[in-house]
Amino acid sequence: MSALSSRPSMARIPSATSSISTMPMQPASKEASDRRRARAESNTSNPLDPIAESAHKHTWIIPGAISGAILGLFLVLGGDREGNPFRPFVLLSYPQLQPDGTVMYGKGSKDLLFCAFYTAIFTFIRELLMEMVLRPLAKWLGFGKSKQSRFMEQCYALVHFIAFGFFGLVHSPSSILWSNEVST
Prior knowledge:
This protein is mostly helical. It has a domain at 51-174. The chain has 7 helices and 2 strands. It has a two-stranded antiparallel ribbon with strand order 1-2. Strand 1 (95-97) and strand 2 (103-105) form a beta hairpin. The radius of gyration is 32 Å and the shape is flat. The N and C termini lie far apart (104 Å).
């Protein structure tokens, strides 16, 4: 009865080599092993790996670097000076003087540079706020991993609408559109 209750040992079962192997052939020589080890070491010794790893972990690094580089070059090369090649990134292009003396702005291809720069700026602000302020707040409040991203998105939307709503309320009363004084 004890023979039936215990499992048979695999050592007593004879093994036969199959004709179709599912395992890769191992190198028979030390040279092949050394080549494989050297190839693995060369793949991990890229000097840009720590930077790529940091940029993947902290998503605000790339838009921050792009925005900082463009803004830095804009300031170094003369800021608001007319010949500055980075001026279309930071300031509106195509000013048009109106007959009443006000300056309006037209549309053109340099507006794409302006939009791209401010897209990078606001992406940087959003990612930095979400990672450095809202994620620690979500952890402190005890949200689980699945609820943290939703909390961060909702809080960012709240901050965004409060900030730009306040900006609109401060800026708009000085506009002619606020008091409906537009003449047609």
